[in-house]
Amino acid sequence: MLARLHGDGFRAVTIVDPGIKSDEHYPIYRSGRAQGVYVRTAAGGELHAKVWPGVCAFPDFTAPAARAWFGRLYEAPLALGVDGFWNDMNEPGVFAPDDFDRPEIGLGPQKTFPLEARHAGDGNPGTHAQYHNVYGMQMARASFEGLRSLRPDRRPLVLTRAGFAGVQRYAAMWTGDNSPTWTHLALTIPMLTNLSVSGVPFVGADVGGFMGSPGAELHTRWLQAAALTPYFRTHSNDVSAPREPWAFGAAHERINRATIELRYRLLPYLYTLFADNEQSGVPPLRPLWFAYPGDVRASLVDDQYLAGGDLLVAPVVHEGQTRRDVYFPKGDAWIDWWDGTRHAGGTVAQVAAPLDRLPLFVRAGAVVPVAPVVQHTGELKTVPLTLAVAAGASGNGHVFQDAGDGYGYREGVSRTITATQDGHGVHLDIPANGGWQRVGALDVIGLDTAPAAGRIDGKPAPGVRFDAATHRLHIPLADEHVRRVEF
Length: 487
Fold this sequence. Notes:
By secondary structure, the chain is α+β, with helices and mostly antiparallel strands. The protein has 3 domains: 266 residues, Glycosidases (TIM Barrel); 93 residues, Immunoglobulin-like (Sandwich), CATH 2.60.40; 120 residues, Sandwich (Immunoglobulin-like). The protein is built from 11 helices and 31 strands.
């Protein structure tokens, strides 16, 4: 099955919880017991608590031996074709005594390990009260390090529900079990931006809410709000109503498809933001105040966010709203992605936000890479890239390209395209192609009228088109041997 999915471009991610079923017939449990890797009670016995498999023992991820043992267990699912792993219930979460018939194990109402349980602490033994917050991060570490050891030429994909300072080295993170309410939709923006500026860049929230069933409007707006967040997925419990993009009728399916396609079109931009993050630590997702610390008004906005430094996202987070106020940070002009309307920095505008539109703006002077829609990311190299140039200011942008997996980029197996505009045109620095996704066109956004002519390296540019409705000028590039495009 996994081989067939791979053939269609799918990847499979499975859940792995810390609870190891305490069962004498279960080889993994017996292996862990033999190696002494489980969390101990205050009295020195093996800690047991009930989770999904029943009564479980739990690896002590604060011990190097336990992390190494657990990491090796990933060999079997990797051999089956599993691509990534999702660490859940690793706060750690367990069922409270009232949830089952073993009150003698002494768990408190906190639904986690007894606070007096013992941990190895990487050579500094201590209680669970001391190590509770770090337990989930160390599970993600065990997963990442095990996968990296088993397949050193691949980048491990680990998702975690719990973490601690440093978890960004090992895993992406989502915000846990939320509810299908407009309040929880609105809360995702400050939650994710705060995680981002706290050093955890690969973050997202369950689209539509985990515990329950969203209405059609809420689900559509949540997809829009999340489309440019670093981690983007729909997720729900097993008693929720269906919420596939097509589950709410043809009209919502059309809108939801366009939202997902917007993310696919901007994947080269998002990928470049992650490459930048590895070098600088600057997160892909940012609150307005992060980029505009001198703008007091920007620090008060919690229902908008920046995707990188060049895209301003202002989702609708209130039911029935078809217009919303948008604040544009001081110091830059901003151009509506859809219709080319220009807004001055430091101003507020009420913008149209019909159900089929995510209010999205590009910073004047920016250059943003955009790709055609593809069925899956493996096809990206086969289609040409467009550079969206936001006119009206000097500025620059770049595109990072590599294999999409592995660590060859650390040995220089990659390229970075840079583009600098000066108000009259764009200077391009495009290294030799080497099989990377090529640049096929420029889209100049925010022009009031069509220019008299476009020029490529001083010569008339063929095939230039101007769309008056969107204020966009399209300039095809026959090849990448271009240094200067004027408009």
